[in-house]
Structure formats: C-alpha cells, structure tokens
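User: Reviewer 2 asked us to show a designed sequence for the structure in our supplementary figure. I'm pasting the structure tokens here. Could you produce the per-position amino acids so we can include them in the response letter?
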C-alpha cells in the first residue's frame, strides 16, 4: 500500500498520542468539556464513574477551603449561601460612596471587549491594578473588606477574583439567534463564583439574573443527573452541554425536585453573589435594554485544597496573564480571518445606554 495516503492518519495518531499527557492532566484541572477531551468525554470511563468522582472530589475540596476561610464570612450569610446558592445584599455602599463609584464606572473609557451571544452584546473592561490607579472609588471598593471578604469566601480563594466593568446589552445584536445565557444552566461541574454590584436598577425589563434556589447543593438526585449527563456527554444535543455547561430543562427541574427559578429584580447598589454550579440564567426580555455592574468572576482549580494567598504581585500576574491570553486569541482569530469570542470593540458610550432607559 502506498505510504502517502496513510500520512494524514499517521499524523493524527502522533498528534493524539502527544496530547494524551495533556488530557490526563486536565482530569485534575478546571477542564470540563466532554467534546474536547476524549478522556473526560469517554462514555465508558464515565459509566465507571470518572465524571461523578470529579464532581464529588471537587465539592469536597471546596468545602475544605470554605472551612479554612470561615472567619471571612458571617455565619448567617454562610448558611444562606449554602441553602440557596446565592446572596442578595441591598444598599451595599453608603449613598455618597456609591455615587462616586457610579460616576467613575459610567465615565471610564478603558479597553472594552465584547462577546456576542444571540441578540445580546456583553461589554467588559478589566479593572486591573493599572485601571484602579485612575479610579479611586473603584480602588476603595476593591480594598473594602465588606466587599473583598464575601467574594473571597464564596470563591474559596484568598486571591481576589477577576474584576470588570460589565454592561449586558440585550437586543443590540441582530440576526444572532437565541442567547444561550437565557437558558437555565450550570457553568461547570464544581462550585464557582460570580458577583455583580449593580450600578443600574435591574427590573424585569432589563433581563435580571435568575437562579434556581437550592440547585447549588450536591444532592443524590443531582449526582445521578450529573452521571446521566456524563454518559451521554459527547452526544448531548446542546453544544454548551457537550462542552461541560449542562442545560436544565423543565422536565429535569421537576425530576430533581427543584423550585422554579427566582428572578432577582434588584435596585441599584445591590450586591448579588452566586454559586454558578447552581442553575441560573439571564431573564428573557422584550426589546433593547442594558444593565451596568461591577462584575467579579472566579473559577480556579477545584482539586487544590490550599486556598492560596492574597498578594498584590499574584493579582498583577493574574491580570497580565489574562491580557496575554486575550491578545493571543486575537492573533489566532485574525489568522483565520475572524474575531475572537471576546474581541476588542468601540462602544457607543452612554448614548445607547440612556436611550435604552439607563
């Protein structure tokens, strides 16, 4: 048989063998995709319990870190977070301080990146240490223990989460289909944290965050459901589910014994913190609207029992790594003749925000 027709098969085999150590290492990392990692996506291994073992171990390690960090959080808030999976803290900042923060957030013109999902544009600007040098009210917020400590404890990491100015712009993208973030879903297989200090009022017309209370708890029913999802893994009908972010249907919700999602209509100056292992979504809206917030996001290795340290150097390195990653994604996308999923954009400023009721 001629060798030339076999070359593509040989090359694929060699590439696959070279990636085996990477795929194995990802078993003990944040990697969640059934589709992109043939070990995590193996129906045979998942029938034998690979995925549910990862889920149980990750939750156990997170519980240990929460215990080690217990002094950071009042007991009442911890109980509420364990019970419901989210916290809502209204009137978070004093009125004068919130006014100064709002002025800075609305007026700041840093580098903005955009992600388009369906008809929704999400704009984010990194609040890295360089940005905070020019934003004294934002810097005071980040230094405020009443803000830092709940974020650190819920993230189960002493290091601060990534911080952004975020504007969610519902209905501003045309022809993009359905926004997948408006379907109830869990972000990944282990506890993670997202938080919003809302600069805007967020009534029903602005697509507030919604959450299925109690879906953060790893019950026996939820573990069995995770097992079923993992066995189907690479064959799940939803592409986000195949990539490790499971979707919750109404039938699934009823089978799990969970309540309907709670829509969090909140006034400005409200801090919302959520464990995004629980099922959540953006609420659907009719027509264009926006909501502006200081946004925090943390997703770190769930198998590392050490909660880390809170050092400025590590914080700077983390943001430098994020900027490097974004630039690398820009270059790769440009080489393909497209744009990265989080790409640079020229926001139209507050005019659209005001036109949408902001």
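Assistant: Here is a per-position design you can include in the supplement:
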């Amino acid at each position: 048989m001629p060798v030339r027709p076999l070359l593509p098969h040989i090359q694929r085999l060699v590439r696959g063998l070279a990636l085996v150590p990477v795929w194995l290492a990802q078993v003990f990392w944040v990697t969640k995709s059934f589709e992109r990692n043939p070990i995590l996506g193996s129906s045979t291994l998942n029938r034998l319990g690979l995925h549910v073992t990862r889920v149980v171990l990750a939750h156990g390690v997170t519980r240990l870190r929460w215990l080690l960090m217990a002094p950071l959080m009042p007991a009442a808030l911890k109980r509420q977070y364990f019970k419901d999976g989210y916290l809502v803290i209204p009137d978070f900042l004093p009125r004068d301080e919130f006014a100064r923060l709002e002025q800075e957030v609305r007026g700041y013109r840093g580098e903005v990146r955009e992600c388009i999902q369906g008809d929704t544009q999400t704009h984010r600007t990194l609040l890295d240490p360089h940005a905070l040098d020019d934003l004294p009210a934002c810097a005071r917020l980040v230094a405020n223990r009443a803000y830092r400590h709940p974020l650190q404890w819920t993230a189960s990491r002493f290091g601060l989460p990534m911080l952004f100015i975020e504007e969610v712009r519902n209905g501003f993208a045309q022809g993009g289909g359905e926004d997948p973030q408006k379907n109830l879903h869990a972000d990944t297989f282990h506890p993670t944290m997202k938080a919003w200090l809302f600069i805007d009022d967020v009534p029903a017309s602005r697509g507030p965050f919604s959450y299925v209370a109690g879906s953060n708890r790893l019950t026996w029913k939820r573990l069995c459901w995770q097992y079923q999802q993992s066995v189907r893994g690479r064959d799940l009908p939803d592409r986000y589910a195949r990539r490790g972010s499971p979707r919750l249907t109404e039938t699934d919700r009823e089978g799990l014994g969970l309540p309907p999602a709670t829509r969090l209509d909140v006034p400005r100056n409200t801090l919302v913190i959520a464990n995004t292992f629980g099922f959540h979504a953006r609420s659907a809206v009719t027509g264009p609207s926006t909501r502006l917030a200081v946004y925090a996001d943390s997703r770190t290795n769930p198998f590392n029992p050490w909660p880390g340290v809170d050092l400025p150097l590590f914080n700077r390195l983390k943001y430098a790594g994020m900027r490097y990653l974004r630039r690398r994604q820009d270059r790769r996308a440009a080489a393909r003749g497209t744009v990265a999923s989080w790409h640079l954009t020229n926001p139209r400023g507050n005019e659209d925000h005001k036109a949408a009721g902001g």
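For the response letter, you might also mention the following. The domain at 28-355 is CATH 2.60.120.620 (Jelly Rolls). Residues 349-358 have pLDDT under 50 and may be disordered.
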